[in-house]
Amino acid sequence: MASGLIVGLAFGMGALGAVVLGKIADLSSLGTLMGLCSVLPLFGALAVWLPKDRT
């Protein structure tokens, strides 16, 4: 039951993300959106320097 909730949440968040990215592409241009999307993985790479949990 919990796995279904997580999968549903993932699909829902993906749909909302597609709507937001589509709106950005409509307001500016597709090139701007692609540039923005190409920078987003850098935030994941920066997560390496987040402090570790103390357990």
H/E series: HH
Sheet with the most strands? none
Number of helices: 2
* Number of beta strands: 0
Which overall shape is indicated by the principal axes computed on the Cα atoms? flat
Give unreliable regions as ranges.
none
Structural class comes to: mainly alpha
Q: Overall mean pLDDT score?
A: 92
The percent range for strand residues is under 5%
What is the number of independent domains? 1
Walk me through this protein's architecture.
The structure is a single chain. The protein has 55 residues and is mainly alpha-helical. It has one domain (2-40). It is built from 2 helices and no strands. It has helices spanning 2-27, 30-46. α1 crosses α2. The protein is flat. The two termini are 29 Å apart.
Describe the secondary-structure layout.
Elements: H1 2-27, H2 30-46
Helix pairs in contact: 1-2
Keywords, please?
flat, single chain, 78% helix, mainly alpha, 0% strand, 55 residues
In short:
This protein has 55 residues and is mainly α. The protein has helices at residues 2-27, 30-46. The model has no long low-confidence stretch (mean pLDDT 92).
